[in-house]
Amino acid sequence: MTQPESLAQLLNGRRAAIDATLPTAGFVTGWLLFHQSIVAGAAVAVVLALGLSLWRLRHGDKPRAVVIGLLGVCVAALIALYTGRAQDFFLIQLFSNAASALTWAASIVIRWPLLGVVVGGVLGQKARWRRDPALLRAYGLASWVWVLQYVVRVAVFLPLYAAGQVFALGVARVALTWPLIAACLAASWWVIRRTLPPGHPGLRHPQPPPSAVPGAVGEGSRPA
To answer: What letters, b where the CB count within 10 A reaches 16 and e where it falls short, cover 122-154?
Structure first.
């Protein structure tokens, strides 16, 4: 199978990791430097998120995705400011990872694995990849790697959040973002490559089932 691109290249995992970790690191840094001030931490996080948003817009990212990322940081900061508990800055991340684990698992069960949905969308294939039984199976198996990624984060974040360990939450957020995303992309790419049969043309070229190929002999039919 000839495949010029990896999942990391297709999904731009490095940029996503920077967007996820920089505002968090800013929040924890501001909180520590200003004597555990939630206001200072929130201000640093929002300023960094705004700077990242402007940089992404200048480099051609879609405004909708940029706005969603900025809003996520702003809402997290507002929650911490409202409750007066610095660990609540991480509450959205805790819930989003738990929800993501459930959503990805459900997508596999209903045979719409989200990895296929995401990659198919990036490649402009819509749902054509689902008509390829080999790709559908490969995306389904590889999506379990992503489920595991979210489960690992919840298992680490939850006890730290319950204990109010703000600095440890910040460290865990950074440690479980880029390194874990990189490992997840590599592992799911390995699963896909191992699952696709020899000779399959790869992610960019979904193959219809034999029965859908013009001139193919269907089950129970005989050639003329």
So the answer is: ebebeeebbebebbbbbbbbbbbbbbbbbbbbb
